[in-house]
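REQUEST FORM: STRUCTURE PREDICTION
Request ID: SP-0412
Submitted by: Lab K.M.
Chain count: 1
Length (residues): 151
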Amino acid sequence: MKNLFLKIPALVLFASLTAISCNTTKNVNTNLPKDISERPADADSQKYDQAQLDKLKSEIEAEIGKEKCTDATVNDWKPAAMGAKACGGPKYYIAYPAKMESSILPKIENYNNKEKEFNKKYSISSDCSIIGEPVGVRCINGKAEVVYPIQ
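STATUS: Completed
RESULT:
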């Protein structure tokens, strides 16, 4: 009987320690990323800056994309220079609704300026070809497209 009383406290002590040690694994730092792809981007990297440019460009295109193109006259749609080549000049032109001019042109200008800064910061080079000015805009399947002169 005496051996039984000694075994019960030892058993209780062992069970208590096991339960406590198992409970401590739940307190791991949950702020750590689970995968390296979830790691925060380095704010001073070219990849991060490019992602910020891409985000601005996508926001501009998404805002313009909400408008359906039905009449491509100058009163409804206009072209705007988009992007900045390293040697100067735009990368391409984008069509935007004339009624959005006051809200969209500052965003396009901001994007263009940020791309110029990006080009200088990372010594980006380009083909230096000149993009011709568009002659107008046309509607194709509800989307506006810039029309360039035939060369």
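NOTES: Residues 46-147 form one domain.
Reviewed by: T.R.
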